[in-house]
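Changelog-adjacent note: as of this version, every example in the card shows the full chain rather than a window. The one below runs 495 residues end to end.
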Amino acid sequence: MSLRSTVLTPFALAISRKIAKDARNAVKDQTKTLKYLVSKARNTQFGRDHHFREVKDIRTYQSHVPLRDYEGHRPYVEQILEGKPNMLWPGMPKYFAKTSGTTSGVKYIPISADSMPFHIQSARNATFNMLSQLGRLDTFDGKLIFLSGSPTLTTPECGVLTGRLSGIVNHEIPSWLTKSQLPTYTTNCIDDWETKLDRIVEETRYEDMRLISGIPPWVQMYYEKLLEATGKTTVSDLFPNFNIFVYGGVNFQPYRESLTNLVGRDVPSLETYPASEGFIAFQDRVGSNDLLLNSNAGIFYEFVPLDQVFDESPDRVTLADVEIGKDYAIILTTNAGLWAYNIGDTVRFVSKDPYRLVVSGRIKHYISAFGEHVIGKEVDQAMTEICQQYSASVVEYTVAPQVNPTNGEPYHEWFVEWEKAPVDMQQFRDALDKSMQIQNIYYKDLIVGKVLKQLQITSLSTGSFRRYMESKGKLGGQNKVPRLSNDRSIVSQLT
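Full-length structure tokens:
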């Protein structure tokens, strides 16, 4: 064991103990967190507008602060962009995470000096905890790669550094780790993804890579380019000490077989759930398919039942009262100055002791053209299950409704780019449709009642999704293909 591994081992064990302690005290910590957030922001413009001095508990907080999305925060954000401090949180933000939305256009999510450390510490804690369980703290004796967005930041007139979250994080990585980190800063600043990836391949092909992190489809592209450039059969031939794959943002299961084949073996993985608004959850057990809620990290959580999301006065459930197996929109109040903020994700708890969840989808990414309300978790589970059954694998896919077909009833159309297509497409389609019916009773009722006919599969040519993402300026980095849409705006550009 190296000196670095020896030093890190007791630190990693202490982190694991703290994670377990926080998990046991989740509800108590949540109450403390809300009290702290309200007290800290009492004299901000938002705090004065919402009478924070009168807020004594969760109930009065909910009565004073209505649920909001970005549009509800926009008037305060715009004043910060004009240079006004103390709007949502004391002082000015340390950063703005710049994101693009379909309804709000460009969004500027504040990251404060108080919230930024939790982004870094949570990622560190999740990694140390998992490597400690695997007995692989020697990972830090080699090189690590983070396939991320550009770290180049801009500075609006207000003076707040602004960029993508993954780029911002590059400026906060602790100094002891930067010597092991790849790609180089210069390469990471390249905007064109194809060019950037070629440079990353050249910088890493001869290195002792031990940790690889990124969105699965872009990591797959990295692996493919590595093998093409080196002539090797598997990534393990290049990186025999590759110990852990860290990812977030999309369900790994549809990509697992492809990535495992490219690597040449099954590498342990760590799933994380970071967002511009805060680091929400992470996988805390080897081989698990769920995430531990980050309950003591500057975020107060509320949960709105999915079937009430668009109601005028929906229930606002706190952590103590969530139900296992029920889909909720997740609502955040944070130490960056976001208040009862709907981030657009849906989650489903699988345990309350401790509080573990799975990300079940996006509120805007669903199909409910006929009241079926199909969500991302359902299509991912169906595709993963049936691909395994029929020895098939996909590069990428998305699903959209066909509301006005030329002949017959409407249907859901699955647009799939195959890595390995099933031998019998009809049997595959039948099994996929059956899996969807088992998971979603509303979809089954529509099929049985002949309102919808069986789903259809449209196979796409190689590179279709990459060309689509490139046309949108979203190739690489942390960008993801929407799994579901309630119209055909995406698929009309794929065919």
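Structural remarks: The longest helix spans residues 3-24.
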